[in-house]
Amino acid sequence: MLPHSSDDARGSLYIVATPIGNLDDFSKRAEQTLRDVDYIAAEDTRHTRRLLNHFGIEAKLFSIHDHNEKDKADYVASLLEDGKNVALVSDAGTPLISDPGYHVVHSLREKGHKVMPIPGACAVISALCASGLPTDQFFFAGFVPAKSKARCDLFESWKTQDGTVIFYESTHRIYDSIADVQKVYGDDAELVLAREITKTFETFLSGTAAEILAMFDEDANQMRGEFVVMLSFIQEQGDESEIEAKRILAILLEDLPVKQAAAMAAKLTGEKKNALYKIALEMQAG
Ligand code: SAM
């Protein structure tokens, strides 16, 4: 029985996560869904056939990949209209996350079809939760550009990003990407690289970009496999004095108008009066 089968005559699309390494991460619900659907749309049918064979699931496959998915969206819609249930899988992990499927899901949702997630492994989430970096806010950038100039421009644009920044990288470009992180951030970013998650050589490397590059130089095996790169920016100096200025402003604002509080705080902290005036206004507003 498919989870939450639709109550109308139309079929549903199931977005089914598959393992990112360890086959034991394939959930019972994912297995059952792939058994029960009428069709499985796969990024690479040969790849998915191996997974299906392993679990003894009939391979009722057709392909949906980056180059045909816009055309295939209508085909999937027609299957659902005919009352067929379809599962979408990618080669590994959660479909649509740096994998094909967005156009299909977007188009089906616009047509009012039912789309249901069957959750499971996803490299970005697996990496982040074990990294030790902040998890309260994060920004996932997918794959970064292959060319160094475009990559450095993108890294520059992250300078104002809050929380942990995460991207996917391949073994071929990992050294050059980390070298560009070093170029843009120097020692101002703390990095964690999650390599080969859930596989035999799972490794988490942490340090500054320079330290990670030194680890690569010492042991080239550390550059092998699949990577999730995570960056946490070290707060710029000056934050501490801003915190102190805010503390003083908060006390002064209890008894003084904004302008006088800012002037007094400037005398006490040595910070600029205009900047403190702006902060005081924000504090009063918020
Ligand atoms: N949809 C997948 C997911 O849910 O994470 C991601 C697919 S994307 C085409 C493949 C990239 O994900 C790899 O190049 C690597 O950056 C990352 N990745 C996938 N599996 C991984 C693993 N076991 N360990 C580390 N990174 C992995």
Report on this structure:
By secondary structure, the protein is α/β, with parallel strands linked by helices. It folds into three domains: 110 residues, Cobalt-precorrin-4 Transmethylase, domain 1 (3-Layer(aba) Sandwich), CATH 3.40.1010.10; 110 residues, Tetrapyrrole methylase, C-terminal domain (Methyltransferase, Cobalt-precorrin-4 Transmethylase, Domain 2, 2-Layer Sandwich); 46 residues. Helices cover 42% and strands 18% of the residues. The protein contains eleven helices and ten strands. The chain has a five-stranded parallel β-sheet, with helices on both faces. The protein is globular, with a radius of gyration of 25 Å. It binds S-adenosylmethionine (SAM). The site of S-adenosylmethionine (SAM) has 24 residues, from α5, β7, β8 and β10.
Strand order of the largest sheet: 3-2-4-1-5
What name is given to the CATH topology of the largest domain?
A: Cobalt-precorrin-4 Transmethylase, domain 1
Q: H/E order of the elements? A: EHEHEHEHEHEHEHEEHEHHH
In helices, the fraction of residues equals 40-55%
Global outline: globular
Average pLDDT score: 93
Total beta strands: 10
CATH architecture label of the largest domain: 3-Layer(aba) Sandwich
Bound molecules: S-adenosylmethionine
Low-confidence stretches are none
